[in-house]
Amino acid sequence: MVARPVMRGAMSPQAAPPVRVAVLISGAGSNMAALIDAGQAPDSGYEVVLVLSNVEGAGGLAIAAAKGVATATVAHKPFGKDREAHERAVDAVLRDAGAEVLALAGYMRVLTPWLVGGWRERMLNIHPSLLPLYPGLDTHARAITAGDAEAGCTVHLVTEGVDEGPILGQARVPIVEGDTAEALAERVKTAEHQLYPQVLSDFCRDLLRP
Asked: How many CB atoms lie within 10 A of CB 70?
């Protein structure tokens, strides 16, 4: 059962404002940019209200700011090996921003059960493979080496296991003769930019249904 955010006032689901989403990044944030753009459409089920990074000066922060979205950085290095302490600081910023759903978009941190539990069934991630195939890294090279006919990407809910959460949507991308991991990655990335906003919007609309 997916937890529903608190409804504002006595508005009907049709009149309810979009769900407030925070996007977590560690780098350039191409998926983040796609999420922001789609969330600004009048019929979107969500709006991106914050982009947060664990890396000072991450390229995606400037992109988000240029699109009019608030940004924040909670660097992980000062916390050393205490991942939960870092996550508690991140969580405080997210809740201060009024975030209702989290979207991980190239957030290169292994999350602790503390943060996953606090946002259970309200945290999404996108992975560049057709899960359950190829969790982890080097997904495109592994798909090519295995002789697969297709690759793709998966949007899933985040659970304690890495890339193991319930699947919300997938997009398939053919692997062509002579493909390289780099060429395949670019085609999969294009699919990601289409899939993630649509799945997130549908997910958020479901949250607003009575």
From this structure: 13
pLDDT in tens, 64-95: 999 999 999 999 999 999 999 999 999 999 99
Distance CA 112, CA 96 (A): 21
**Catalytic one among 76, 86, 127, 193?**
127
| 29 assigned to a ligand binding site | yes
Residue 54 assigned as binding residue: no
Report the C-alpha gap between 153 and 189 in whole angstroms: 8
Q: Tell whether 125 is in a known binding site.
A: yes
Q: Scanning the structure block, which residue is given the tokens 């009048």?
A: 42
Establish whether 86 is a catalytic residue.
no
Task: Measure Cα distances from 147 to 112, 139, 144, 189 in Å.
Answer: 34, 13, 5, 20
